[in-house]
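Example for tutorial group B:
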């Protein structure tokens, strides 16, 4: 039978462990209004229903297109984790075009980079993905963030269990 002090120590250890684990994941980068619009493929089906709806979407940069007065970033959307990082190993949620005022340096948004944007749905546009017709939701961007490798890896569990002998260098 355990003493009351042993039970207290176990409870405190469990609480400390839970707090430690919850502190690992970075906080979201953008404040959510709680009413974020549906996934891009849902918005593409009825864009008028989502007019001016706030979104926090993210995904992989496909291309940057600079126009005379604004720039457009085509993004293949992915679900976001609790820190609003795109989960690129999940299934895609469709594509969208992030519109930004002025010139956007394509080297700052390279093809393949993961990005998260905060903005509002500002309509849609018909286009193509390859030869297939596609409707792209347009997002007027207020803020954007391109994720670095270290940011994507922060807060992830680096403990691995296994049987056998191995050497790992990171």
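The residue assignment follows.
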């Amino acid at each position: 039978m355990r003493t009351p002090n042993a039970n207290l120590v176990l409870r405190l250890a469990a609480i400390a462990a839970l707090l430690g684990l919850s502190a690992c994941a970075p906080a979201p980068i953008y404040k959510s209004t709680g009413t974020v619009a549906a996934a891009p493929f849902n918005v593409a089906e009825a864009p008028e229903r989502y007019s001016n709806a706030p979104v926090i979407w993210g995904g992989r940069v496909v291309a940057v297109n600079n126009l005379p007065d604004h720039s457009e970033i085509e993004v293949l959307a992915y679900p976001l984790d609790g820190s609003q990082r795109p989960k690129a190993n999940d299934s895609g949620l469709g594509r969208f075009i992030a519109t930004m005022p002025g010139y956007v340096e394509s080297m700052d948004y390279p093809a393949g980079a993961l990005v998260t944007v905060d903005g509002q749905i500002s309509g849609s546009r018909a286009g193509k993905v390859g030869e297939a017709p596609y409707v792209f939701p347009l997002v007027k961007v207020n803020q954007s963030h391109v994720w670095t490798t270290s940011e994507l890896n922060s807060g992830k569990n680096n403990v691995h269990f296994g049987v056998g002998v191995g050497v790992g260098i990171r």
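The domain at 40-152 is CATH 2.40.50.140 (OB fold (Dihydrolipoamide Acetyltransferase, E2P)). Compare this with the pattern of hydrophobic and polar residues in the output above.
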